[in-house]
Every structure is written in C-alpha cells, then in structure tokens.
Amino acid sequence: MRQEWAQVLDREVLGGLSRLGSLLWAAANLAVGVLLWSLGAYLHRGGVDPRWLLASLAVVCAAVLLRRTRPGTGLAAATVGLAVEAAVLGPSVWSVVVYGDLLYAAVVWGGARLVRGVVAAVAVAGVAVLGAGGLLRSGGLLELLQLLGLYVLVFGTPLTSGLSVRAHRARAELERQRAAQVARMAELDRANAVAAERARMARELHDVVANHLSAVALQSTAALALREFDPERVRGVLRTVRDSSVRGLAEMRRMIEVLRAGEPAGTDRVAPRLGEAERLAATARDAGLDVVLDGVADVGELPARVDAAAYRIVQECLTNALRYAAPRRVRVSVRRVAGDSGAAGLLVVEAVNPVGAAAGERPGPPGPGAGLAGMRERAVLLGGRFRAGPDGDGTWRVRAELPVEE
Q: Burial letters for 86-106: b for 16+ Cβ neighbours within 10 Å, e otherwise?
C-alpha cells in the first residue's frame, strides 16, 4: 500500500517540471505560511506593507515545486526570495522553515557538484554571519552564541540531515548492487552446475550405451561374417548379445530411476564399482577376446568417484580392444601405488593390447574418439593423469593414474 502511494506521489505533473508530491507539499507550505502571516508570525519593518511578505513567501514555496526535478534551481530561486525578504521586507518565520527544507532537498537529490557547492556556501555564510555578529554585537558573548545556535538550527540541521540521508541512500544502493551481483553469481553457479551435470550424464550415457552397443554390433557383425552356419557358435554370439543388452538396459534403468527420484545422494546407486570388472572381462571373453585381468581384488576400498572412474576406464579399454586388437587379446592391470610423504596414493589402471596391420580391418563401426576423450576427462576431473597411444613395439597402451584420497 505504501509503495502504491509512493508511485502516485512520484508521478510527473506540469509537463514534467515537478512531481505530484512536490506540488502538494508546496501548496501545504503556502497554506501554513499564509496562516502564520495572518497571525503575525513575521518581523515587522516600519514603512513596509506586510502584504509584500506574501509575495516573497509565494516565491519560496513555488521553489518547492522543483525540489525533486531541479533542486539546484529551486534552491537558487528560494535564496533570492529569502534574501530580498530579509533585507527589505523583514523575514517571516515560515519562509525560513521552507528554505531549510529546500536546502535539505538539494543535498539529498542534487548532484555531487551541487552538494559540494551548498556545503561550501553554508560554511562561508556561517563564518560571515559570525564575523558580522562579532563586530556588531551589543549583548556580549551570549548574544553571539545565540546567533550561532540559530544559524546552525536554520541552516546546519537541514544540511547535516540531508548529508546523512544521502550517505544512507548511497550505502543502500551499494547493497542493492551487491545483492544483484550475488544473485548473478548464484545464477552463473547454477548454470555451471547444470552444465557439469549434463557433461557427467553425457559421459555416463556414452559408457552405458556406446560400450554395450559396440559389443552387440561386433558380435552381430561376426555372426553375419560366418561362412558356414555353426549353431553352437551362433548360440554363443546370441547369448553374448543378450547379456550385453540386458546389462545395458539395467544400467540405463538405474540412471533413469535416480533422475526421476531427484535425490542427489542416490547417485551412488548408479555408479558401478571396480570389483564388478570381472563381469566385463567375462563378456569380452564370450565375444572372443583373450582377457587377462590382474590386481582388481587387491586394491581394497576406494572412494566412490575413483571406483566408478576406474570401472569405466576398464570397460572402455576392453571395448577398444574388442574393436582394434590384433591378435584379439588384452592385458588389464590395476594396482594401488603409495604416494610421496604427505601426498595421496594413486590407483594405476593400465591396459596393453597388440595392434597389427589388420586392426583397421576389424569389423565394427569406426569410433569418433569419444572413448579416449571420456577416459581422459574422468582422470583429469579427479586430478589424475591419462596417456594412451602406441607403445613402439606393436602394442597400444592405456595408462590412467587416479589420486586416491585417504
């Protein structure tokens, strides 16, 4: 309700020259000034018609119209009107009060240059008034102190009040800007978190779908390449295809359940463990790959992220060996290495398989390199290192070093 009234009072009037609130405030001040004039609240000067005070009062109150839109112009007009009134007509009480309000408005809503000018003018005028009072005083020091108190009350109080409000508004504006910046940073953090989660889900989808489908494609291609129908071999191929499909669907189902539940703590149920790597080796053996898997049972307990990353790296190594190893064999070793003093240990996953001239003719769709990129990204995200490439003796070597936080 208060905000609605503030918006109404802040509406522009008189072609944008003033605001509705300033217009009402000027009319109220003029009404109070006329009432006090009728009661004789002014200093009467002989030979001057007191009705002229109404003209100077009207000038000072008219300056109130500009207190929000042009505070410097309004203060200058009121200064001229008050000076003429004090020098010629005899000052009225309410004109001085309204001038104090204009002084306050100039400090609150004026520019920095105007504020510095007003402060300097009030200080210089105060020194001048004290100097004149000291030269012309007839009542001693007490009269000089009374003059100083009156000047501070009329001019110093509105000035200091305006400066205090201006400083408070400046601090409030800084706080608003800081709050907006914090909100923007929070939005950026949320966007980064969403992007990181999307990247993680992309890696998981690649590992779950691409690896199992690659095994299915290889087995299907091998079955189609048979020159003579061999029921037992075809049955073995179909059994391997079925196992790969069922496992892929099971992992996909677990991921979808977690996404639907919306429980971040439940993501551990999706993450596989290195202890399940023997199943990967069995599937690869069924597909015709000679697999030697060493050291999995000796690494002990691992952090969940390291455990899942090591499993995915072993899975990708076996998939690549199925596609490109010639002859079709691979050796995967996993071992835990103690770190230096004060450093965490390392989990080293290493896979070696031969590559020959026939590797490029291995059946199966060519890969875009996403598997190697995914393994490297998993290692780097954990603060580890990853290398993959030919070993110089006709073999392809993959080595991943994953830090293990104790």
A: eeebbbbebbbbbbbbbbbbb
